[in-house]
Specification:
By secondary structure, this protein is mainly alpha-helical. The chain has a domain of 62 residues. Helices cover 53% and strands 0% of the residues.
Length: 108
C-alpha cells in the first residue's frame, strides 16, 4: 500500500502552501471588489429612488392626506382600553353535557 502512495518532499509541501496562500489572497481581493461594486450600485439605486420621489415627498409635506393633519404630540387623543382573551376547551364546545352552558341541555 505504501508503494502506491508517493511521499511528497519538503519542496512540494512548500509549493502547495505558497499556492494556497496565493489563492486565499486572490479570493479575498475578489470578494472585496465584489463587495465594493455592490455598495456602489446600492447607493446609486438609493440615490436614484430618492431623486425620483422628491416631488412626491414635497407634495405630501405641503398637502397631507385627509385625516392625517399634523398635530402636536400633546394635542393627540388617547384611547385607553383593556382586552381579555378567553380560550375554551374544544371538548366543552362540542359536548351537550356541559354544566356551564345553560343553552345546551341533554335530550329528555
Amino acid at each position: 500500500m505504501r508503494d502506491s502512495m508517493q511521499e511528497s518532499g519538503p519542496f512540494v509541501k512548500l509549493l502547495a502552501a505558497v499556492g494556497g496562500a496565493i489563492l486565499l489572497v486572490l479570493g479575498l481581493m475578489f470578494s472585496l471588489v465584489v463587495l465594493a461594486v455592490a455598495v456602489v450600485v446600492g447607493l446609486g439605486v438609493l440615490g436614484w429612488f430618492w431623486w425620483k420621489t422628491r416631488e412626491l415627498r414635497r407634495h405630501l409635506r405641503e398637502n397631507p392626506p385627509p385625516g392625517r393633519e399634523r398635530q402636536s404630540s400633546s394635542a393627540g387623543r388617547v384611547i385607553e382600553g383593556e382586552a381579555v382573551s378567553v380560550e375554551e376547551d374544544a371538548g366543552r364546545m362540542t359536548s351537550n353535557h356541559s354544566p356551564e352552558s345553560p343553552e345546551r341541555r341533554p335530550p329528555d
